[in-house]
Amino acid sequence: ARATGAIVNLFGASVQVDGTLISSPDYSISIVTECTGLIPMAIVVCAVLAYPGTWKQKAIGSALGIVALFVLNLVRTSSLFFIGSHFSSSFFNTAHFLIWQPVMIVVAIVLWLFWVEKIVRVAPH
Q1: pLDDT of residue 121
Q2: Which of 3, 23, 67, 115 could form an SS bridge with 28, CB 3.0 to 4.6 Å?
Q3: pTM
Q4: Rounded to the nearest 5°, which phi and psi values hold at 80?
């Protein structure tokens, strides 16, 4: 929540962060565990660990996935704050559940495929 609050403030909103709550005079959101990006990160890490490769390759893939998804999640939570503060709650729900959640999962899968292709480079049998 603090990182999202800092980003939102960089873009001109005046928000306060109190624990998991990000609030402005007009709008507030709460960053709950499901909003942290941990599930897509776990998908990438589990896929990397399950795929054949060296421990060094697996460390690179896990780190790449975690960092990329953390950054993307900051974009997601920041954009959702602005969407919620400027548009209707139905548009917020659409962006939150129907756009950003699938995007996070698809990016997790794409990151894993990128790791398989560029880092592991398994030769066909």
Answers
A1: 80
A2: 23
A3: 0.91
A4: -65, -35
pLDDT tens, residue order, the chain (125 aa): 999 999 999 998 999 999 999 999 989 999 999 889 999 999 999 999 999 999 999 999 999 999 999 999 999 999 999 999 999 999 999 999 999 999 999 999 999 999 999 999 865 55
15-22 contacts at long range (C-beta below 8 A, 24 or more positions apart):
15/81, 22/81
Rounded Cα–Cα distance for residues 44 and 105 (Å) = 9
65: Cβ contacts below 8 Å, ≥ 6 apart:
41, 44, 45, 48, 108, 111, 112, 115
Neighbours of 81 (CB within 10 A): 25
